[in-house]
Specification:
Strand content: over 45%
Order of helices and strands: HEEEEEEEE
Number of strands: 8
Number of domains: 1
CATH topology: Jelly Rolls
CATH architecture: Sandwich
Shape: globular
CATH class: Mainly Beta
Number of helices: 1
Structural class: mainly beta
Amino acid sequence: MKFRNILIILAMLIFASAGRTFAQNDRSTSRDTPTPIQNNKVEDDLDGSDDSYFYKFTASPGKVTITFEVEAAETNAGANFDLYDSNSRPLLSSVLVQGVDKGSERTVKSIKVTKKQDVIIRVKGIKYGESGGRGTYTISLDGAVEKANQQAPPENQKPPE
């Protein structure tokens, strides 16, 4: 019976750590190597620090709608969101989204893109003293957005005949 309980506990620990790994998605802290957004959505944790994380997506000409949402785990949680074009020029700056008293806030913004390009999103958490700032954020993309490739083909690959 003890062996069975140990297996159950071990399985629970593995699933818990796997869930955390998938949520973090190895998010990038470098603007030069942002994390590609898969399936037009990012969901991740705010850890109470003022760290910055970077994501990218490819936008086609047209209107792109971005939904930012923050949900506080305990007291308050918040983040500033910035969007940059492929030349590092700001498309949106300092979009503040905060969840207060275990609540959530959602903000929807749109940009118009005139040519196909990569767009970088910076998420900068807000530190609320010693005990605040923990929660989650979600970024959803809609409109003229291309699906991210899981793996880019090698540059010297010949096209199929």
